[in-house]
Task: inverse folding
């Protein structure tokens, strides 16, 4: 088992293509949390409602960046919308992305109009920027507020299928490739949607608890506990789906399993079996399970939830890695495996990936400086 | 309960004759008869390729000719020759002369059976690489060749992932998708592809499936052949004569 087709010696999709579905997943997950409040009336999530929407927005802004960096001819990136080939799953990206971006921007506009108006009343560059965003119309009364709320609710509802579509489509990109036995499964897009929700809730919990702690804000405990319960539920579904998929291939013992089994046992044993499942799925499952089934003291609960959220962020990243890179390690000759280890400083290396992943948090901080994302927070009263 | 045969003996014989005719009808002619030889009154060939694996000696002259003719950078391949070695226990070892000189390493140990299999783009009639290209840079020509418009390709690599045969790659110099073109610049001028021209053993054959008298059509009518990964539903147009079951 050591033969690969000669063109497979170089892995084509690397770190950037791992990062792309990861960031897209954060968008979809964060948006779902905001919609749980705006559409489904989960009012205990009010503390993170604006934060989740703004998080979805900033991650969405950066979602195409890894793709553009990956392209061999980035200056032709818009060909995907100018001359789309609609038999390609990838051709839908530009349209789905743009439509979703419009919905998210509009929702933010309607949800945060009052805050923008307040900020626009001052003088200076930021106030002028806010006035420009408001199209220089600062009028507001109860009727406009009601209308804003209605429209925001509609957009939040519309955004749910679009978020699922955006991320389901990413899963479909992989799942629809019949040439690759590790990717080719109709379950792929469902798995991607659920893991997206897991990563989205995780990033919100992780970030919210972190900034609350750093700023000395009072943590909204019912909100955190509720998010932790949602996270537990969604991670159970996501991991179960992945394991069911694996069990199904393993049990059928088809020709594909001979090579996929070897892939799991040898090439992906550490990143897939040990890290993704045994460490970064099992530990958060236990931590969140304890929190969901028992009532712990707030401080202890928050530490456990924060660790679980951080670990699940890594788990989803590992899942993306094992799907994207793992699938390319299997030779289409079914007679061997290639190898890949990411570089640090190359164009599609780890350093660039880290910068891309950090940038949305910077933009989110700027966003918060213009319009407060946590308007109701109080200082910690210990 | 009895079953009555309502057909007469003559009808039965006719049916039997028709059935046996189907069994012996060569698949090659089925392929050829599906082609539309003319469009707007103008003859359009339908190019296809055959590899006679019983004749290849693994000299890799085809690989060198392809690299020279098409300026293929080192480390990527529009065509290659696979060497299969089967030992007494049935274990199969496969390798490719990927070095710059394209010369196979000498073999050590006992080999029960060995053969060479040249590979290239299968120019599939239902090519999945064309299906997945997001910008329509990959396309099938009317004369049966799968090409890439490298001035339009964005270099996303989706076609590389989609090709079941590992025939596509991202050209490291041009940063766009690349693959065998059947030497389109040559065949449209009435010349054979470089690999076909250079093969000293006539193991690589190229011809027009629309021409019933072409050597390719005659061979496909006369000899058994296999296609690579037919289960992918891509309808490859590269026919492998005498292909061993070990080859995928």
Result:
């Amino acid at each position: 088992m050591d033969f690969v087709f000669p063109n497979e010696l170089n892995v084509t999709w690397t770190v950037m293509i791992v990062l792309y579905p990861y960031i897209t997943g954060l968008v979809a997950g964060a948006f779902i949390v905001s919609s749980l409040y705006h559409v489904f009336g989960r009012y205990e999530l009010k503390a993170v409602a604006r934060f989740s929407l703004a998080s979805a927005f900033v991650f969405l802004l950066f979602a195409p960046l890894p793709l553009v960096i990956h392209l061999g001819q980035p200056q032709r990136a818009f060909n995907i919308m100018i001359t789309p080939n609609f038999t390609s799953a990838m051709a839908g990206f530009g349209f789905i992305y743009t439509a979703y971006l419009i919905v998210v921007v509009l929702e933010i506009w309607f949800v945060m109009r009052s805050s923008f108006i307040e900020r626009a009343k001052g003088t200076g560059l930021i106030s002028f920027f806010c006035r420009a965003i408001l199209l220089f119309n600062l009028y507001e009364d109860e009727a406009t507020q009601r209308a804003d709320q209605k429209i925001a609710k509609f957009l939040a509802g519309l955004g749910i299928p679009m978020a699922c579509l955006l991320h389901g489509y990413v899963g479909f990109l992989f799942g629809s490739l019949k040439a690759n036995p590790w990717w080719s499964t109709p379950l792929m897009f469902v798995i991607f949607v659920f893991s997206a929700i897991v990563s989205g809730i995780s990033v919100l919990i992780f970030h919210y608890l972190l900034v609350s702690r750093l700023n000395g804000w009072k943590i909204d405990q019912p909100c955190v506990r509720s998010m932790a319960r949602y996270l537990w539920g969604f991670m159970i579904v996501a991991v179960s789906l992945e394991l069911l998929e694996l069990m199904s291939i393993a049990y059928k013992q088809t020709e594909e399993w001979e090579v996929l089994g070897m892939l799991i046992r040898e090439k992906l044993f550490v990143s897939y079996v040990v890290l993704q499942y045994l460490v970064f799925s099992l530990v958060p499952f236990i931590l969140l399970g304890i929190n969901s089934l028992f009532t712990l003291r707030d401080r202890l609960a928050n530490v456990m939830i924060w660790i679980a959220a951080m670990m699940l962020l890594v788990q989803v990243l590992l899942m993306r890695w094992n799907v994207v890179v793992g699938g390319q390690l299997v030779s289409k000759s079914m007679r061997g495996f290639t190898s890949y280890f990411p570089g640090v400083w190359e164009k599609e290396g780890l350093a660039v990936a880290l910068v891309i992943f950090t940038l949305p948090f910077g933009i989110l901080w700027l966003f918060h400086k213009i319009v407060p994302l946590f308007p109701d927070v109080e200082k910690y009263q210990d | 309960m009895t079953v009555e045969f309502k057909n007469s003996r003559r009808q039965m014989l006719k049916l039997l004759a028709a059935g046996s005719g189907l069994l012996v009808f060569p698949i090659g002619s089925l392929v050829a008869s599906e082609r539309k030889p003319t469009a707007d009154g103008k003859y359009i060939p339908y190019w296809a390729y055959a590899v006679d694996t019983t004749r290849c000696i693994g000299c890799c002259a085809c690989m060198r000719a392809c690299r020279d003719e098409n300026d293929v950078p080192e480390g990527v391949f529009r065509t290659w020759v696979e060497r299969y070695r089967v030992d007494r226990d049935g274990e199969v070892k496969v390798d490719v002369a990927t070095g710059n000189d394209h010369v196979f390493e000498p073999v050590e140990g006992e080999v029960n059976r060995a053969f060479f299999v040249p590979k290239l783009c299968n120019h599939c009639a239902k090519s999945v690489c064309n299906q997945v290209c997001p910008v329509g840079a990959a396309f099938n020509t009317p004369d049966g060749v799968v090409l890439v418009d490298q001035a339009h390709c964005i270099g996303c690599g989706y076609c590389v992932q989609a090709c079941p045969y590992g025939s596509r790659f991202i050209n490291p110099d041009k940063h766009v998708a690349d693959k065998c073109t059947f030497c389109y610049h040559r065949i449209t001028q009435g010349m054979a592809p470089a690999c076909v021209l250079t093969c000293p053993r006539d193991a690589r054959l190229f011809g027009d499936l629309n021409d019933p008298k072409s050597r390719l059509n005659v061979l496909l009518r006369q000899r058994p052949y296999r296609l690579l990964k037919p289960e992918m539903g891509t309808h490859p147009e590269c026919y492998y004569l005498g292909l061993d079951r070990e080859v995928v």
Remarks:
- The radius of gyration of chain A is 22 Å.
- Chain A has a mean pLDDT of 94.
- The longest helix of chain A spans residues 142-175.
